[in-house]
Amino acid sequence: MTTTRRHLLRSGGLGAAAVAAGALTTVPAQAAGPAGSDPHATASSAKAGGAAQPATAAATVADLLATASKSLRDGEVAVVAGYRTPGDGGGMTVRWDAGSTSTPNGGTVLRPNDRPAQGRWRRLHDGVLDFRGFGLFDAATPADDALDAMVDDPSVHRVEAHTDLLFRRRHTYHRSRIVLDFGGHTVHTGGIERNAHDNPFGAVLFFQGTLTSDTVSHALPAEVIELTDAFPVPDSGAFEVGQWWAVQSDEVAGGGSDERELQKMVEVTEIIDGTHIRVDYLNGWPLAAGRTVTWRRVEPVVGARVDNLVFLGAGQDTGAVDDEYTGSAPVAYEYAVDCDVSGIHATGTFWPVIMRRWCTRYRTVQCSLKNPPTVMYGGAGYLTQQIYCLYGHVADCTTSNVRHLNDLTASAYCQVVNCHGDGDDEGGNPFTTHGQYEHDLLFEGNSGLMDIANSGVQWGNSAKRITVRDHVCSWFTANTRITDLTLENVKVIARPTFDPAGTLVINADGAQLRGCTASFFAVAQKSARSTRPTTVTDCSFDLPKASVLVQTPVTAPVHFVRTTFTGLDGNVLRGSGPVHLTDCRLAGSPNAAPLAVGASEITVDGGSLTDTGIALSAVRDQRISVGGGAVLSGTNAAKALLSRTAGTAATITWDLADLRSSAADADTAHVQVADGGNRYSAVGARLTGGRLALAAAAFTGTSSLLHTACTEDGVTREGLPADGKRVSATGGNLIL
């Protein structure tokens, strides 16, 4: 080899000379060769590493390979100033391994042009490699072979890209502890090989752990309680501390075909005794005795990270039916631990940009997706989908015109923070959970449509302890079997291009709302698992006309506290469960119908009702209590602030005390009762103007009427029965 340091100085500049000078003074340690490489390579490297060897120099890789192999000494070191031109970033230090027969790959294993059967230049490196070291400087040539060469080399722990790249294969890797950093450059995938059917894991980069044949399946001898990390097993000797296992329960009897409460990948943290182990997971749902639990040992991928790339999806012009085969996505993980992703910005991907299943402990941050080819095909058009995942953190991500920004399916103890989805007019709600028994999830500081546990009965339509804080959207539905939902400062603002109603719907199973606003608000009930009350506190709702505020199936008590309802006009509380209004403000209009109430009990404690009222439906026996300084004023289309539907036999119990009622005109009744059974008590009420219409026909038989210690100022009494054994309406009142 004839290239000298002086020639390098002329052709490659000071940088090349510095590299050459460093190589001449010391010989870098040889990194371990790839698994399955030539066994002679290690022996030659060891032999050459005993003492510093003379170093030669080459301007380019072509110059290096032009050297006749017969002139090379085993262990000889060469410094290459550039791959194609000196200083182009593809330079390297290599050592001649005379015994190697490894397959040349154009970057870490090089064979001279005279193609010897034995003898290779092997790159010396510290575990950090670069696509330029394989002669790749743009997206004109596929980089798949170079990627495989670097990732499949166990001595490599970091792969960097400094230019745009083209990939046309879907790569599956099983290795751990590697970082792929694309430096913010663009990854192209035009012409990528076809994917398999329904395969969101057919990504360019798929890191997959290994599911072993070690399996333990058994029926539970006793109930596994909620929030335990101690699990019964037939023989704890089959487990070791530090092992990872994929554990799942059998399907719920009589439930959906994929309805399981337990599906997670967990680490064994302790062998408790001969029949119990402890894992790194507090179980979110109880499992009854007799249920079958299956454990499968996993050798996970650990610490495989992907960072900083712009990704252009393929296939978006071929139509959604074929896109599942021709479309592309950058990253997927299965059976993975501590595998983070950051800085991926994708356009036009079909399957999820970041797909995860059976993953534990990870971060997905500062990623985005724009304009997938479809938002209607199940599983397509996601930024990130997470199935059977634990301890995930998704933050600072954005989407435009997608199906989902974040989907958590059968996952737990995950957080989604400061993520924002726009362009969701086609119904692609950015934030969702599947309803496969998710639990303990936090959404904070996000914006975009939200839909929790609503993918269908096949998976159970269930979730527990979901918390959403500081969220802004135009549609939010959480009305399936969602237990202990917590919403804080959720603002649902009507948007004419998607949901003019501004919908917020919840399940009355321990739901608690604080500081929320919406237009259409409704309380549903699909489950009754919680021990905590359903409360709506310090909220504001501008209800559409005649909307149902409390739906028919609701049997749980619902408590509204310091909450404002405006726009009331024939709105309905249809469920039979008790409704309690504490210091709430209800406002309608003089021509609007009053609130129709079918609740078994309604309590108004303080607050105000303005130009509205309460009309009891009397479809069942009911109780109404109004007091605590409550203020009723104005009028409504029924001309009655408190009334009951006529023509029913139900018994209504009226408890009226410490209230002020001011009728807007002489035709408006403070209380109007025409028939049916009634147990009426008004003590200490102050009535001004209008009428008090208590028909004698409503107080026969076992009915009763007590109206005392009340102040009536300009009130016209209509039809009140004469005092008797069960009626007292004249004594003790102040009539002005």
List the helices and strands and how they pair.
Layout lengths: L4 H21 L13 H10 L6 E4 L2 H5 L11 E4 L11 E6 L11 E2 L9 E5 L3 E3 L13 H8 L6 E3 L4 E2 L4 E3 L4 E11 L16 E4 L1 E10 L10 E3 L11 E6 L13 E11 L2 E4 L12 E8 L1 E2 L1 E9 L7 H7 L4 E7 L3 E7 L6 E12 L2 E3 L11 E6 L2 E6 L2 E3 L3 E6 L2 E6 L2 E3 L8 E3 L2 E9 L5 E2 L10 E12 L1 E4 L2 E3 L2 E7 L10 E5 L4 E3 L2 E2 L2 E4 L9 E4 L2 E3 L5 E3 L7 E4 L2 E3 L5 E2 L5 E4 L2 E3 L7 E3 L3 E5 L2 E3 L3 E3 L5 E6 L2 E5 L5 E5 L6 E7 L1 E5 L5 E5 L3 E7 L2 E3 L2 E4 L9 E5 L2 E3 L2 E3 L8 E2 L5 E2 L1
Parallel strand pairs: 1-2, 6-7, 7-10, 8-10, 9-11, 10-19, 11-20, 18-20, 19-21, 20-22, 21-22, 21-23, 22-24, 22-25, 23-26, 24-27, 25-28, 26-29, 27-30, 28-31, 30-32, 31-33, 32-34, 33-35, 33-36, 34-37, 36-38, 37-40, 38-41, 39-42, 41-44, 42-45, 43-46, 44-47, 45-48, 46-49, 47-50, 48-51, 49-52, 50-53, ...
Antiparallel strand pairs: 2-3, 3-5, 4-5, 12-17, 13-16, 14-15, 14-17, 15-16
The first-to-last residue Cα distance is 119 Å
List low-confidence stretches: 1-51
How many helical elements? 5
Proportion in β-strands: 35-45%
Rg (CA only) = 36 Å
Main beta-sheet strand count, sense and barrel state: 37 strands, parallel
**Average residue-wise pLDDT:** 92
Annotation, overall tally of beta strands: 66
Helix content: under 10%
Shape call: elongated
> What class, by secondary structure content?
mainly beta
